[in-house]
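Quick one: C-alpha cells for this chain, please?
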Amino acid sequence: MRLTRWGMVWERGARAFWPLLALLAVLFAVLALGGVESLPTIALPWLGGAAMAALIVAAIVGGLRYRRVRESEALERLDRTLPGRPLAALGDHAVLGGEGALWRAHLVQMQARAEAARAVRPDADLARRDPFALRLAAMVALAMALIFGGAGQMGQGISAIAATMGRPLANAPGDPAGPSWEGWAEPPRYTRRPTIYLNALREGEVLELPKGSAVTFRLYGEGAAVTQDIGPAVSDDGQAPGFRAERSGAITVAGRRFDVTVLPDRAPVIRAGAAPTRRADGRLIQEFQARDDNGVVSGQARIALDLASVDRRFGLAVDPEPRDPIELQLPLPRSGDRREIRGQLVEDLARHPWANLPVTLTLEAVDGIEQAGLSQPLQTLLPGKRFFNPLAAALIEIRRDLLWSRENAGRSAEILRAVTWQPQGFVDQTLYQELQRAIGMLESGDLSAQDRDKLAEALWKAAMLLEDGGLSDALERMKQAQEKLSEAIRNGASKDEIQRLMDELKDATDAYTQMLAEQGQQDQSDRFAQNQQGQQITGDQIQQMMDEIQRLMNEGRMAEAQQLLEQFNRMMENLQVTQGQGGSGSGQQGQGNRSMNRLADTLRQQQRLSDEAFRDMQEQFGQGQSGQPSQNSQDFADRQRGLREELGQQRGMLPGQGLEQGDEARRQLDEAGRAMDDAEQALRDGDTGGALQRQADAIQSLREGMRALGDMLNQDSGQQAGEGQQQGGQQAGAQDGQGQQPGGGMRSEGRPMLDPLGRQRSGNGNVVTSGDPLAEGLDPAKRARDLLDEIRRRSGDRQRPQDERDYLGRLLDRF
C-alpha cells in the first residue's frame, strides 16, 4: 500500500508540475548551448523577465492542481485491483447472526486474497494531457545540453542576463555612474580546456592560459577601458575588445589587474616499442607510445629503405629505382583523453618491394598547432610473408628483383627459365604457361612500369598458389563467412538467415581445416610452427566451439555468440596441423607442457598487472585521491580483459579430457576467469582494492590449476617411464647383474623440470636425483609458489630497507 501511495504521489506531481519541469529543461538547454549569446542585448531583460514570469505561473498553477494523497485513496486503488475487494471486507463487521464460523471462513478467504496484493503501477497519463509532446521535446533539449553544452557558456549567459537586468536604462540625475565589465578566457579548442569566467577569479589570482587563448571582454557603461601586453588584438570594437594570449604579461580592466602566465604548447613526444614483429599472416605489428600536454591530434609511421644495410648482391647489386617512403597513419582513439596514448600499428606490407629488407622506421606525432615530434629512427627488417616452397621462394625473389630495378629483367628471365626447366611433377600446366608468358615479357627488352607491376602481381599469385595450394583462398572464404555472420548478428537478422550463414561458416571451416591437414601431411617442415605460439586444437574441439556458438544463438544470447565467434576466427587464423610423435601419450605430454608454459606466462603477466595496480593505488593514496579512478584504471582493465580472454583459449586447449586432474585444472581455470572478470569490473569502477583482492584469487586459482595439470603430466610421464623400464629391464639386468639401474642407486623420475614460475624447462623433462628424500618429496611447482609468495610479502613490508625492497621488486619484474 505504501508503494501504491508513493506511485500516486508521483502521478499527481507529474500531472501538476510537468509544464514547470519542461520550462526549466528548455531554459537550461538555452543557457548551456549558448543561446543567450545569439540574442540582442536589448531583448535580454525582456526575455529574462518573461521566462521568470512563466516559471512563476507554472509553479502556481501546479501548486493549485496538486492534491495530497490520502491513505484511504491508496487503499481504495489497491483494493480495486483485487477480486472481491478483500481489503474493504477485512474491515467489515457482521450485522446479523454475529461473527460465526461462516463469517470467519469469509475473513480467511478475504485474507488469502489480500495476501496476493501487489503494488499498483503508477500512470500519470501525460500523453493525453500533453497531446503535442512538449515534455518530450524539452527532454531532448535537456539531453543535448548535457552532452554538447558547457558550464562556461551557461555562466556567460547567466551573467549577461544579470548584467542587463541590473543596469538601469538611463541614469537618473544623481545616480552613481561607474563602469561595469565582464571577461572570458577561452583556450584553443584542441586543448579541450573549459572557458574561464574572469569575474569569478579571486583578487590577485594568477591567470594561467595555454598559448593562443582568446581573451574577450564586454563593457557596460562609459569610461571602461582595457589595456594589455599579452598579445595582438583580434577585435577593435570598443564595447567588446578581444586579444590573443601569446606571451606572459598583465591585463588591466576598469582598475582591476590580472597577471597572466601563458603556458607554451610543447611539441609531442613519441617513441616506438620493440622492433616490429610479424604475425602469422605476414602482417607488421608495431607498438608505440605518444604523449602531449594538450593531446595528440594525428600520427604517422614513415618507413624508408636503409640502402646502406642492404646486402648488395645478385638482383640487389644494381641501383634501385626511386621509390617514395611508406607512410602509414597511426591508429588513435576516437574519443577520450589523448595526452597519453599506447597503441599498436597493424599493417599488411608483405607485397611491398621492401618486404624482408632493411628499413628505417620513424614515428611522428602532431598536436593541435601542427607541432610534430619524431621518434628515434629504428633500424629493422620490414616484416613480410615467408615462403618455404623452393619454387615459390624463387618466384618471390624474382619479383623482388624486378621491383628493385627493371634492369634485372634479363637476369630474372634466365632464372625463371632455369626454375621452370623440366616442370613435370611440381608445376601444373596452367601455371607453367603463365610463367612462360612472363619469360616472354621479360625478354622483350621493353618492360614498362605498368607491365612490371602486372608481372609482379602475377608472380605473387603464382608463389601463393605454390606455397599454400589454395589455402589462402580457403582462409579468405572462412573469414568472409565469419564477417557475414557477425554482421547478421549485429543487425538482428532473422533466425533462418543466421542459420544459413552459420551453415556456410561450418562448410568453409571444414574446407579450410581439410586443406590445411592435407598440406601438413605433404610438408613436414617447420613452416607452420614458425609463426605459431605453440597452441594446438583438435577437430573435435573446433566442432565443440562451433556447437557452443550455435547454442548461444539458439538461446538468443547474440552478444556472447558474437564474442565467441571473433575468438574462434582469431584462433583459426593461427591454426596449425601437426602429427603426433611417439603415440598418444607423448602427444598429450607435449601438449600439456605447452599448456603449462602458456599458463605460467599468463600467471606472470597477472602478477605483473597486480603489482602495477598496487603501486598505482599507493600513488593515489599518497596524493590524497584514494577511492577515485586513476588515469591507468582503464588501461589496467583492458589488460585484465586480454588476460581473461587468453585464459579462456588456454582452457579450451588443455589435455586430459575426462581425467580427474584435467577436470580439476579446468575448474580452477574457470574460477580464475571469473576472478579476472570481477577484477576488470572493479578496475573500471575505480575500486582498486577490490580489484587487487580478485586478482589475488585469480593468481591462486591459476596456481592450483597448474598444480593439477602438473600432477596429470607427472602421472602420464611416470606411466611412460614404467613402460620404458619394463621394456628395457632385461637389458638393464644384464648390465648390473641385479636388475637395477646402474649408477649406484641413482634413478630417473618422471617429473617435469620447472623454473620458479612452474614453466617447463628445456631438455627431456626428467629430474635425476640421488635418493635424497628432500629432493624426491618436494614439488617444484609448490616450491615456486612458496618462493614467490615470500618475495611478494617481503617486497610489501615497508619496514625493510629500500635497497632490499628494490632488489625484490626486480625479482618480481623478472619472473
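Residues 167-179, 521-534, 576-586, 724-778 have pLDDT under 50 and may be disordered.
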